[in-house]
Design a protein that fits this description.
The chain has 3 helices and 29 strands. It has helices at 2-19, 101-104, 315-318, and strands at residues 34-35, 40-47, 60-62, 69-76, 83-90, 111-112, 115-118, 126-132, 140-148, 155-164, 169-175, 186-194, 207-213, 221-224, 228-230, 235-238, 246-248, 254-257, 268-273, 278-282, 285-286, 303-305, 321-329, 338-341, 356-358, 363-371, 373-381, 399-407, 416-425. The strands form 6 sheets. Strands 1, 3, 5, 6, 9 and 10 form a 6-stranded mixed sheet that branches. Strands 19, 20, 21, 23, 25 and 26 form a 6-stranded mixed sheet that branches. Strands 11, 12, 15, 16 and 17 form a 5-stranded antiparallel sheet that branches.
């Protein structure tokens, strides 16, 4: 029964790949991180400084520094195609701002992608595209959309990025929750914003503050209000008492090492090879909710594209695409929808990342086509009470937090990003 189920799962995954854009098409430029074509893989947008860990950084840059943002993605089975990029300026809450293109761009808002390479000696061929995001005039939130030819309704991917200015100073720290029952599980982010010379008419509404954990928008906190004002130091203090600035201290991320196809990496049980493809079967996962906390170095949900093979020309064009089989031992009678989540799939809860229940073995399975590399992931359940009931929580867990401060100058129609701060807790 189990062998027949696995065969069905792999056949389903293969057909999904071949169907390509027929399975996931969207003609609306949504202001989120999303891929709309199943042949488009490994979409990354990051500050490019030619360092190993660049690709794990948030797509946030200082307006006054000369650090470009680099977009990369692959298209499977295809020769070169013509793709263009356009930018959308957004408000602090990712609604589209009323600004015209000329108000935030120096150039016409159609940018062709001209840099591409073909994969080298890979079983699944692909074309690798890269693009440097043009400079913008204004700080704030932006969405980059990629579309075929000149047809802006034929979108293949959209990615968020942010440009900030240092018009405020931010001090932040991670503390125990002020709610006693949550102290062992939650992390509370207390911070203050020194607004310097900004003209604030209303101290509770003129600044828009956003707080997020591990670069994820899943449970980002918008609309935080200051709890007190220090006029002497020109500071707004955010020290809440009812969980407004609390995050669950999720346990360290699960991980696997898919950088080699000649030996089993960490948490890889075995590798199956054929002339057409390779498959990595991961070690069986279980619920960690009742397990004690164990500190591990992780990427906070991120991933790195990399190959450890001897014939590597470059990681961009030499890494193979491999089928990665996830298996989770969990009670299928609960009939929960369980998703594999991480930065590699934009934390997106879609059918492609949804696990398939096998009641005969009381297991959940899913096969994902991923580029060679080192990956972090978690399991998310659809249960309303506790979506991370398979992972568990601990205050000690190392997590990364970001505070973003937006400001709408009097008489304007857009939100500037006037402050940005990052902290790694318990690193």
């Amino acid at each position: 029964m189990r062998l027949s189920f696995l065969f069905f799962l792999l056949l389903f995954s293969y057909c999904a790949i071949q169907e390509g854009s027929k399975l996931a098409k969207n003609t609306t430029p949504l202001t989120q991180d999303k891929v709309y074509d199943t042949n488009i893989k490994t979409v990354r947008l990051y500050p490019f400084q030619n360092r190993y860990n660049d690709q794990m950084q948030s797509p946030i840059i200082n307006k006054n520094e000369n650090i470009p943002l680099r977009l990369e993605f692959d298209e499977l089975f295809q020769d070169f195609k013509t793709y263009n990029v356009s930018l959308i300026h957004c408000n602090f809450d990712w609604t589209i701002s009323p600004l015209s293109d000329i108000e935030f761009l120096y150039d016409y808002n159609i940018f062709p992608i001209t840099e591409y390479q073909y994969s080298q000696n890979t079983k699944i061929p692909y074309t690798h595209y890269s693009f440097i995001v043009p400079k913008v005039k204004l700080s704030g939130n932006y969405v980059l959309i990629v579309y075929r030819d000149n047809n802006k309704s034929d979108i293949i991917a959209s990615q968020r990025f942010m440009v900030f200015e240092n018009e405020t100073d931010i001090e932040m720290e991670v503390n125990y929750s002020t709610v006693a029952s949550e102290r062992d599980f939650n992390q509370q982010i207390d911070f203050s914003v020194h607004y310097k010379n900004l003209e604030l008419n209303n101290y509770f509404t003129d600044l828009y503050v956003l707080l997020r954990q591990n670069r994820s928008w899943l449970d980002a906190k918008f609309h935080l209000k200051p709890t007190r004002i220090d006029f002497q130091s020109k500071s707004l203090v955010y020290e809440h008492f009812n969980l407004e600035n609390n995050f669950r201290g999720l346990k360290e991320f699960r991980f696997f090492d898919a950088r080699s196809l000649t030996y089993n990496g960490l948490n890889v049980r075995h590798i199956e090879r054929s002339n057409k493809e390779a498959q990595l079967v991961l070690t069986k996962d279980k619920s960690r909710f009742s397990q004690p906390y164990s500190k591990l170095n992780d990427f906070n949900g991120g991933y790195v594209v990399e190959s450890k093979e001897l014939n590597v020309i470059s990681n961009e064009v030499s890494c193979e695409y491999v089928k990665v089989l996830f298996s989770l031992e969990y009670n299928t009678s609960k009939k929960e929808d369980i998703y594999i989540m991480g930065a590699f799939n934009n934390w997106d809860r879609t059918d492609a990342n949804k696990m398939i229940a096998d009641s005969a073995s009381d297991m959940y399975y899913q096969s994902l086509l991923l580029k060679q590399g080192f990956y972090n992931y978690l399991y998310l359940s659809t249960t309303d009470k506790d979506p991370f009931c398979l992972e568990g929580y601990d205050f000690q867990t190392e997590n990364m937090y970001e505070v973003l401060v937006y400001y709408k100058p009097p008489g304007t129609f857009y939100h500037k990003l006037v402050g940005y701060k990052i902290i790694d807790f318990n690193k």
